[in-house]
Amino acid sequence: MFALERSRCLSRRRAQYLAAEPSAPIPGLVRERGFGARGLLLLVTALSFLSRFYRLAEPGHVCWDETHFGKMGSYYINQTFFFDVHPPLGKMLIGLAGYLTGYDGTFPFKKPGDKYGHHHYYGMRALCATLGSFLVPFAYLIVLELSSSLCAALLAAVLLIFGHQTCRRKLRMQAWPTSLTLLKQ
């Protein structure tokens, strides 16, 4: 008796489910979400750029990773042969940024704390900061697409904007592979 009543109840639920109108699809892109999502995207992008370019020229000395990546960029500018086990694209782009902004490749990058003096290092830092800045809107859009939640997307963006701020402004390689991977998607 109980099994028969249970099967009738399940049959009614299935019939109600099948007869119900299909729910609206979850909108996937920011342009389908209205001004709120677009406004937040513009806000987190602006905050990302402002936070990474604020006092970018400071400190006026070599920071930790700049010792390695600045030296490799100088090698590319001077067309000096060297061997490195890691793929060269990021270091080549740092060298290109330095070359395009007036860096001549003569700074030795021997140890952290060495003063830059008259050398033009700002362009190399600016290119790394630019790529690091683009990670925030990419993360916002990815989380928005995957979760359909503005709060989750905003949280991801805020964590990237304000987390590890000092590391993202210098000649760091983490922005290169992450940005290029996200652009590929």
From TrEMBL:
Cellular component GO terms held in the UniProt record: endoplasmic reticulum; membrane
Ranges annotated as spanning the membrane: 146-163
Signal sequence extent: none
Subcellular localization(s) per the UniProt record: Endomembrane system
Pathway field: Protein modification; protein glycosylation
InterPro entries xref list: ArnT-like_N, PMT-like
Source species, domain of life: Eukaryota
Keywords: Glycosyltransferase, Membrane, Transferase, Transmembrane, Transmembrane helix
Pfam families, alphabetized: PMT (PF02366)
One GO molecular-function entry: dolichyl-phosphate-mannose-protein mannosyltransferase activity
ArnT-like N-terminal domain span: 43-163
Recorded topology in the membrane: Multi-pass membrane protein
Family membership noted in the UniProt record: Belongs to the glycosyltransferase 39 family.
Listed name of the protein: Protein O-mannosyl-transferase 2
The species this protein was found in: Chiloscyllium punctatum (Brownbanded bambooshark)
